[in-house]
Design goal:
Layout: H1 14-27, H2 34-37, H3 43-58, H4 64-77, H5 81-94, H6 100-106, H7 117-131, H8 138-146, H9 151-174
Helix pairs in contact: 1-3, 3-9, 4-5, 4-7, 4-9, 7-9
């Protein structure tokens, strides 16, 4: 059963077209992705989801490749097929030192050894947050601070994790089809 409808740019309301156009201008995309078109029936939802993603991914101090790696790992951990595929592609386009096989290896137990320490510590932290944020202790924060992250940047890491969880729930519940340019990793 198809759980969603897509609103194409041409048939969207003027307000939704503004959201679509802002997405494409901000990301450099030439097409509106499935996740956003699935929200196109409601200008307020499309705007809210896009503003959340835009503010979290394109604002703040952390570099975009790190944020994309966080979203990828959280999404893969949650089994979110759409988000893991989308953000795997983003990670690979932003960090040419990584290959698709590196991301596949990351999905295996004890795979942190395949990542540069900068990524590995954040991925470890993110997995602990996803598992149970109440289990975080000062040592978890200390590891990131030892890696050079400020308290403000750690809050930003948590905000990225939280945004990923929101999108994981949305895209997985609807079983969104992958955009043609995404390569399934799960």
């Amino acid at each position: 059963m198809q759980r969603y409808t897509l609103t194409e740019y041409e048939s969207a309301s003027d307000e939704v077209r503004k959201v679509y156009s802002d997405f494409m201008a901000t990301t450099g995309a030439t097409e509106v992705p499935v996740w956003l078109k699935s929200l196109g029936h409601s200008a307020s939802l499309a705007r809210a989801y896009w503003q959340r993603a835009k503010g979290t991914l394109f604002g703040g101090n952390l570099p975009l490749p790190l944020k994309e790696m966080i979203v990828f790992t959280v999404s893969a951990r949650n089994g979110a097929r759409y988000c893991s595929a989308c953000h795997a592609q983003s990670v690979l386009s932003l960090d040419k030192a990584l290959a698709f096989e590196d991301l596949q290896a990351l999905l295996q137990p004890e795979s942190g050894d395949h990542l540069p320490p900068y990524y590995a510590h954040v991925v470890e932290f993110a997995m602990k947050v996803v598992e149970n944020p109440n289990d975080l202790d000062d040592a978890d924060f200390g590891k990131l601070m030892d890696e050079g992250f400020s308290r403000e940047e750690i809050c930003e890491v948590i905000a990225v994790i939280d945004m990923a969880m929101m999108f994981n729930i949305y895209t997985s519940s609807l079983r969104l089809d992958l955009d043609p340019q995404y390569r399934a990793i799960l």
